[in-house]
Specification:
The complex is a heterodimer of chains A (213) and B (703).
Chain A: H1 6-20, E1 29-30, H2 32-38, H3 43-55, E2 59-62, E3 66-69, H4 74-98, H5 101-116, H6 122-139, H7 143-163, H8 170-185, H9 189-211
Antiparallel strand pairs in A: 1-3, 2-3
Helix pairs in contact in A: 1-3, 2-3, 4-6, 4-7, 4-8, 4-9, 5-6, 5-8, 6-7, 8-9
Chain B: H1 2-7, E1 37-43, E2 47-54, E3 60-67, H2 73-83, E4 92-99, H3 101-107, E5 114-119, H4 123-128, E6 139-143, H5 159-169, E7 175-180, H6 188-200, E8 205-207, H7 217-247, E9 254-257, E10 263-265, H8 266-271, H9 279-292, E11 297-302, E12 307-313, E13 316-317, E14 319-320, E15 325-326, E16 329-330, E17 335-336, E18 338-341, E19 347-351, E20 357-363, E21 365-366, H10 367-373, H11 376-385, E22 399-402, H12 415-423, E23 429-430, H13 431-437, H14 449-453, E24 457-461, H15 464-470, H16 479-493, H17 497-521, H18 536-546, E25 562-565, H19 569-579, E26 584-585, H20 593-600, E27 603-615, E28 622-628, E29 633-636, H21 639-660, E30 663-676, E31 679-690
The chains are: A mainly alpha (213), B alpha/beta (703).
Chain lengths: 213, 703
């Protein structure tokens, strides 16, 4: 998110990252003052940032118990995944229609980076995977889809981090990304859509298994 | 406090606010009778100064000086904001800061690591002019692409190459800068590079055409690289200042001074930190102009570390069109035309290799101050003064001391550094003792760069400030210690103390006069100490200062008056004015004029729109006229239509920019320049007073 305020932006970026990477785990109580001190900032920008994060559904503000990091529940997971495997295939299809040569180069670069990353380096693989999905959304050239999915990426990235220690699907995703780039390159909408659907669905199936004991 | 302000409203006939913009524009001069408080802060290399000013009456209500901490300028700012006398901080309606942060970060290599991507530049051409070292970063890479003088694509953009390079280095740099050949005429390749790079990494990306519309490709690349290297530095600084403001419950807009003395909002500054280069000296000049009400003057600001000279002409601080130079890097940043010399109150007085007295260029802590902090120093100096001459050398006056504990072990890189820090644990020690302790013969054998840069150890020595203590013209610290130190120095040189001081004052006067003469004349004059030199320039200079020749009388005559700024100005500039045969003006509060200047500037936004012909492939036929702004491009059939559109666009963009940058009711003037070849540059300048916070507005509440 692009904000005007220099310090609110900084606080927003830092706190959001801490929540997504589970440094601030789901359900953690958030003390504004403490957070401000840790970030070496004033309380006002931190408060502003927390409000924005409440908008992002990463922070919950309760009148009586203060602030806490939003919990993750299985129903949440289902609902988030429903949205993602409806909208992301839509993006993949649009990308197949609209992707420019530059978009394809970016996808290609990310795919190569993913392939070159050591299989055990899950954190980096996740980051590249995230950028790959963002690049496809961007190639779809629809600013509303960009905004909506950015919101859902924020929510689902937390799930990835929770599943991270036991996740091992990334090698297969290398092949899937390759065929997705191929489909977009050949302007094959239908195929791009299908690959994306299966890709996202397979991922959520695995995350569900990991999180569901 | 309000009563006091009402009582002392300034009824001077001129309203200097209207004259401080770079162009003569009459601004609304709505005078408020009640106090409108603004806080101006200047962070210099030695001191951080703050003033609380009544915005409309121009009265300085309070001021505060605090020592700067170079490793973290926000410490000094916090001290000033904490320390300045403010009865009601919520009444402050604007805070404005000038800072040498950017200049210092570049000069001391403390800025962040930047990858500079050069699109369409010719590596061989750059190498043939030996310009690789001028880019402001050692990590620069060439790629195919770029445009020609008519905005036509010169070569296809090598985006795969750019992506591969960024992928390879993204973990080793903190930011990326992109500069395309002729990108102000057509920024397409820069935009495409930006989109692609942001797709594969999270690094901040700076584009050259957004910082400069000038066509000088090397300067633009340097500016982009320096800007990228300063993004994080300035962001941290702004966050720290806002935090300090919040701690004192000041909820006002924060402005930052540019190198030409104009103001921009903190959001703008965070995006274009490179524009703050030279903002400190520019603020001094504006402050001097503001406090003195003079429209023609030469402003000299004497600080602890440097002396800065600027010219005020027709009420404005003269600006250089060429672009600011910092640490040998030529940029395309507009800045005040300044001349800076490494001479100040805290310049180190030492001997050079030929045993001649030298003042500066290093800045050290005055011994009077060190003795004030460590009373043992005075007895050490006493013992030193009683030693026999054989064992004495000026080196004994140079003391090293710990500025702070090196926290983690990783702060110390070498065994020598550890040993040195250990030896200083008990307090400051003179240099010869340190050398003995380390089993060394000379200072050059100790690598202190890391320790000095991180401000772990500091140096103290004899300075002009000490001599002022001896003469009782300054009395902040230990005058006794200063006298002992001076006596030791004089004994080493077999100088009479009074003659010695006279020599130092003369030498300083000479150096400043020399700076004034070379600055105004634009000519070089190397001063040699050989009396038999036959050069007439040298003779003229010396004769004009010392009236040596029995028949030939020469002298310098500075037409405008001299405005003295900075605490030691009153002391040092009298003799300078005498030698220049001009009037010296020391406005009230001249010692904090720099901080006054930080709030005295106008908010200004300049927007340039380029209009140039679109020619056919063979270059013989004009097909139309391109109107190019930073991110917008349109083609018109007729030049007149293109120009009309460009004027409207420039005006609109400048106005919008000024409003976003915190200007109140900005006025716009549009000017047209021809670059030849049917190419035009439409420049719109929007200038306004900074928008102050409305009191009684919404309370954001500090919890």
């Amino acid at each position: 998110m692009e904000l005007v305020d220099v310090d609110t932006q900084h606080a927003y970026d830092r706190i959001r990252e801490a929540i997504i990477t589970l440094e601030l785990g789901p359900g953690t109580l958030v003390n504004e003052q403490e957070l401000a001190e840790n970030l070496r900032m004033g309380a006002v920008p931190v408060r502003e940032a927390l409000k924005l994060l409440a908008h992002d559904e990463l922070i919950v503000i309760t009148p009586r118990h203060g602030l806490y990091v939003a919990d993750i529940s299985l129903p949440d997971l289902e609902q988030i995944s429903e949205v993602r495997f409806t909208l992301e295939p839509l993006c993949a299809g649009l990308a197949a229609q609209r992707a420019t040569a530059d978009d394809l180069m970016v996808l290609e670069a990310l795919r190569k980076e993913q392939a070159a990353t050591a299989p055990g380096d899950n954190r980096r693989l996740l980051d590249v995977d995230h950028k790959f999905h963002q690049a496809i959304v961007r190639a779809a050239k629809n600013k509303y889809l960009i905004r909506i999915l950015e919101h859902f990426f924020g929510l689902s990235q937390r799930l990835w981090y929770m599943a991270l220690p036991r996740l091992d699907m990334l090698p297969t995703s290398v092949a899937e990304h390759l065929s997705m780039v191929e489909a977009i390159k050949h302007r094959d909408e239908e195929r791009a859509r299908r690959i994306m659907h299966d890709h996202v669905k397979a991922f959520y199936d695995q995350v569900r298994d990991i999180l569901n004991p | 406090m309000l009563k006091a302000i009402n009582k002392t409203i300034d009824n001077r006939h001129l309203n200097p606010w209207t004259l401080l913009s770079a162009e003569s524009i009459t601004l609304n001069t709505d005078r408020h009778s009640r106090g409108t408080l603004v806080l101006g802060i200047d962070t210099g290399g030695t001191y951080t100064d703050g003033v609380l000013l009544d915005y409309y009456s121009h009265e300085v209500l309070a001021s505060h000086k605090s020592l700067s901490t170079k490793r973290d300028f926000s410490i000094g700012i916090e001290a000033v904001i904490r320390g300045i006398q403010i009865e009601d901080p919520t009444a402050i309606q604007m805070v404005s800061v000038s800072t040498t942060l950017a200049t210092n970060a570049i000069a001391e290599g403390k800025s962040k690591r930047v990858a500079l991507l050069l699109i369409g530049y010719d590596p061989e051409l750059i190498a043939s002019f030996d310009m690789q070292g001028r880019f402001g970063t050692p990590h620069y890479y060439y790629f195919d692409g770029g445009h020609d003088l008519y905005g036509r694509e010169k070569t296809t953009l090598d985006l795969p190459g750019i992506l591969a390079k960024v992928g390879e280095i993204k973990n080793d740099v903190d930011a990326v800068a992109v500069s395309g050949y002729f990108s102000p005429l057509n920024p397409e390749h820069e935009h495409r590079a930006f989109d692609a790079i942001s797709g594969i990494c999270d690094l901040p990306v700076v584009l050259g055409h957004q910082l400069s519309t000038k066509l000088g490709s090397v300067e633009r690349a340097t500016t982009a690289a320096l800007n990228a290297s300063l993004l994080a530095v300035l962001k941290e600084f702004i966050i720290a200042v806002r935090r300090a403001m919040e701690h004192r419950r000041i909820r006002a807009p924060l402005m930052v001074v540019r190198g030409d003395g104009t103001l921009m909002s903190d959001e703008f500054a965070a995006k274009t930190p490179v524009e703050t280069i030279h903002s400190g000296p520019a603020a001094s000049a504006i402050g001097g102009r503001f406090l003195s009400h003079l429209d023609q003057a030469l402003v000299i600001d004497i600080g602890g570390t440097t002396t800065d000279i600027a010219l005020v002409e027709n009420g404005h601080v003269a600006v250089t069109e060429e672009g600011a130079t910092v640490a040998d890097y030529k940029t395309s940043v507009k800045a005040a035309n300044l001349f800076s010399i490494a001479l100040g109150g805290d310049s180190h007085i030492t001997l050079d290799s030929e045993n001649r007295i030298r003042i500066g260029p290093q800045r050290v802590t005055p011994l009077a101050y060190l003795a004030d902090q460590y009373p043992r120093i005075r007895s050490n100096l006493k013992a030193l003064s009683q030693r026999s001459d054989v064992h004495l050398s000026p080196d004994w006056l140079e003391h090293w001391y710990l500025l702070r504990d090196p926290v983690g072990a990783d702060w110390l890189h070498t065994e020598q550094e550890r040993k040195l820090v250990d030896s200083l644990a008990e307090g400051p020690r003179p240099l010869p003792e340190i050398l003995t302790h380390l089993n060394l013969y000379s200072k050059v054998q100790i690598d202190t760069e890391n320790l000095m840069r991180r401000e772990i150890i500091g140096t103290s020595g004899l300075t002009p400030t000490d001599l002022l203590h001896v003469e009782e013209r300054h009395s902040a610290w230990d005058a006794g210690a200063a006298k002992l130190a001076m006596d030791v120095f004089c004994r080493c040189l077999r100088y009479d103390p009074a003659d010695f001081r006279e020599h130092i004052w003369l030498k300083m006067t000479e150096t400043i006069v020399h700076a004034v003469v070379t600055f105004l004349s634009g000519k070089k004059l190397t001063l040699s100490s050989h009396a038999r030199d036959t050069d007439i320039g040298q003779w003229f200079f010396r004769n004009s200062l010392y009236d040596d020749h029995p028949q030939l009388k020469t002298s310098f005559r500075l037409q405008p008056p001299l405005i003295g700024i900075g605490a030691p100005a009153a002391i040092f500039l009298n003799s300078v004015a005498e030698k220049l045969h001009c009037k010296l003006v020391l406005p009230t509060h001249h010692e904090v004029a720099n901080a006054v200047g930080a709030v005295a500037g106008s908010v200004m936004i300049t927007e340039e729109v380029l209009v140039y012909p679109q020619v056919s492939g063979d270059g013989l036929e004009v097909l139309g006229y391109t109107v190019q702004t930073g991110d917008h491009r349109e083609v018109y059939e007729e030049a007149a239509d293109a120009l009309a559109h460009a004027r409207a666009m420039a005006r609109e963009r400048a106005l919008g920019g000024a409003l976003r940058s915190g200007a109140d009711n900005p006025q716009v003037i549009v000017k047209e320049h021809s670059d030849g070849l049917d190419t035009f540059r439409i420049r719109a300048k929007a200038v306004g007073k900074p928008r102050l916070m409305r009191l009684g507005g919404k309370d954001h509440g500090v919890g």
